[in-house]
From TrEMBL:
Name of the protein: Divergent polysaccharide deacetylase family protein
Top-level taxon of origin: Bacteria
Pfam family, one: Polysacc_deac_2
InterPro entries in the record: Divergent_DAC, Glyco_hydro/deAcase_b/a-brl
CDD domains in alphabetical order: CE4_DAC2
Entry-linked Gene3D superfamilies: Glycoside hydrolase/deacetylase (3.20.20.370)
Amino acid sequence: MPPRKKTRGKKRPVSKKSANQHLKVGLALLFLLVFLIGALVFLGQLRSRLLPPPAKVVPVAESVILEAMRVEIESALLRSGASMEGLEIIAEGGRTRFVVVADFPAAPLLDNLDRRLQQISADIRLEIRRQQGEVAIHRGETLPFLLQFRLPPPLEPAGKRPRLAIIIDDLGRDLETARTLAGMDLELTFAVLPGTENASRVATLAHRYQREVMVHIPMEPLSYPATNPGRDALLVGMSAEEIHRRFHGFLERVPYAVGGNNHMGSRFTENRPGMAAVMQVMKGEGLFFVDSRTSAHSVAYDEARRAGLPAAGRDVFLDNVQDVEAIVVEIRRLVRLAKAQGTAVGICHPHPETLEALRREAGIFRREGVELVPASRLLVR
C-alpha cells in the first residue's frame, strides 16, 4: 500500500460562500457604526434646540460693582424723600430702571451721589436730563441704571390723625432678632450700630422689608472710658476731619441709611463743636437727625436745626425697665402723648421683653386711631 501524503501546515482554500458571509458581517458592522454616529449627531442637534441657551455669566468683579452702584442709588433716592411705596424697580435686559414718584432731586444730592459712585469706579458718570425728569447713570459705554422721576400727586389736606414713630436702637448684632422685628406688621424704624458684625446684613434685611434704616451713631458718654460706646465712636476733642472720616465709615457699613440718631453720647451731644461737625457731614449726605436725648443738656437738636437738617427728638424710652408689663405701660403712654401733641417719638431696644410687648400691643395703634410711621415722617424741616 503506498504511503499517505502529509497535509500538516497546508491551508485549506476559502470557499466562495464563506467569503460572502464575512463581507456581509463587515458591511453590517460598518452600517451599524455609521448609524450610531448619525444618531449621536442628531441627538446633539436636538438637545441644542430643546435646551435654553446657557445664561450669560457676569464676571464676579462686574456683579459686585453693579450691586454696589445699586445700593448707593437706592440709598440716595430714599434720602431724597422717595418712599418705598413710590419706588418701582424694573429690570430691562442689561439695564435697571427706577421709576420714582418724587420731585426731581436737588443738585447737592446728585453731586453727592456722583461722588460716591466715583468711589466705586472711576468710569461711572451721571447724565442729568432735568427737562425729561431723568438721570442716566453710565459706566463706560454702558447704561446700567436709569432714574425717572414722576411728580407726586397733590397733597391732601392734613388730617387730625396723630402719628408716632418707634425706633429700635442697637441693631446689628443678631440677625434673627432683626428678622423677627422686620416680620412684625409694624412700621418700625431700624437704628443700626455700624460697629456690629451684622450691621450691613441687618440694614439690607430691613430695606428688603421696606423698613426705614438709620445709623445709630456711637458717641462718647459721660462714663467713658469705663463705658465703651463702640467701634470708631465719636469722641470729644476729635477734629472735624476725623469725625467726617469716621462718619463716612459708618455709612459704608450701614447701607440704605436715611438718617441717624446718637448711641450713648451723653457727653458728646453736649459739645457744640463736635455736634456741628456731625451735622455738617450729615447735611452733605442728605441725612436727617433724631436726638435720642441721653443728656438733659444735649445741643444735638439745636445744632441740627442750625445746620438746616430735618430733625426730631425722642419723647419716651420704652424699655428702661426690661419687663413686659412695664414696657406695655410705656407704649400706651407714647400713644397718649401722640394723641395729646399730634406726634411722638419712642425709642426701644431689641430685648426679648420689648419684642413680646410690641407683639402684645400691635393692635393698640389702630384701636386708638394713631398712625405708626417711619421716623422721617415726624421731622421738623
